[in-house]
Amino acid sequence: MIVNITFFGVYQKQIKGKDKLFERWRKQKWCIANFYLWIATFFSVNIYRLIFCQLFRLEIMSVKVSRPQPFLRPLLIFGFIKFLVFNFPLLITNFLGISILEWGNQCYMTMLESTILSFLTLLLMIWEYFLKEYLIVRENIQLSMKNLENIDEHVHLKNEDEDGGKFSSFGGRKKKVNPGFDDNFFGQTSSGFLLSR
User: Fold this and answer.
1) What phi and psi, each to the nearest 5 degrees, are found at residue 174?
2) Residue 178, H or E segment
3) Dihedral angle sign, alpha carbons of residues 72, 75, 79, 81
C-alpha cells in the first residue's frame, strides 16, 4: 500500500501535466484515466499498465503520449520496487516451506505455485524493461507513417494521370478511368479506379 501511495505522489509530480498529448487524452478520457490511477493506488501499481495494453485496440486502453519513456519510467521503477518488497520475501518463505514440507501437502503445492508465478512475473518485468521502447508507440510516429502512405498514394495517382489514365472496356465501349474518383457503382463503393460516366 505504501508503494502504491508513493507511486500516486510521483505520478502527480512527474507525469501529470508534463506531456501535452497525454493531458489531451486524459481530459477526453478523464473517467477511465482517474479509474486506472485510483485502482493502482488502492490495489496494485501494476494495474496501471492497463492504460497502454491496447487490449482489443480500445481507446480507453491505448494512451497517447508524445514522450513514452518519461511516462513509463515511474511505472517500471515502482514495479521492481513492489517485487522486492512483496515477492522477494514471499520467495524466501516459499523456499523454506518447500524444503521442510513433503510433496503432496497442500501448503507445499501452494508455495510451489506461488514460486513459479513469482519467477514468471520477474521474467515478464525483465522483458518489459528491455522492450520498453515498443510498449507505447509515439503518436507522432504513427502520424508520420500515415502521412507517408498518403503521399505514396498521391504520387502513384499523379503518375497514372500523367500517363493519360487507363482504359477499360465495358459494354463494347472504352471508357477512361479517372484516378482517385470515388462514386457508387451498382450500389457498391470502390476505393480504387472507377468507371466515370
Assistant:
1) -95, 130
2) strand 173-178
3) positive
Split into its structural domains, the chain has a count of 2
Tens-binned pLDDT, residue by residue, of the chain (197 aa): 788 889 888 888 888 888 888 999 999 999 999 999 999 999 988 889 899 888 888 888 988 888 888 888 888 999 999 999 999 999 999 999 999 998 888 999 999 999 999 999 999 999 988 888 787 765 444 444 555 556 566 666 666 665 554 444 444 444 444 444 444 444 444 444 444 44
Verify that 30 and 66 share a domain, yes or no: yes
Domain range for 175 is 141-195
pTM for this predicted structure: 0.60
Q: Please indicate, yes or no, whether residues 126 and 145 belong to a single structural domain of this protein.
A: no
- The string of DSSP codes covering 63-77 is ---S-HHHHHHHHHH
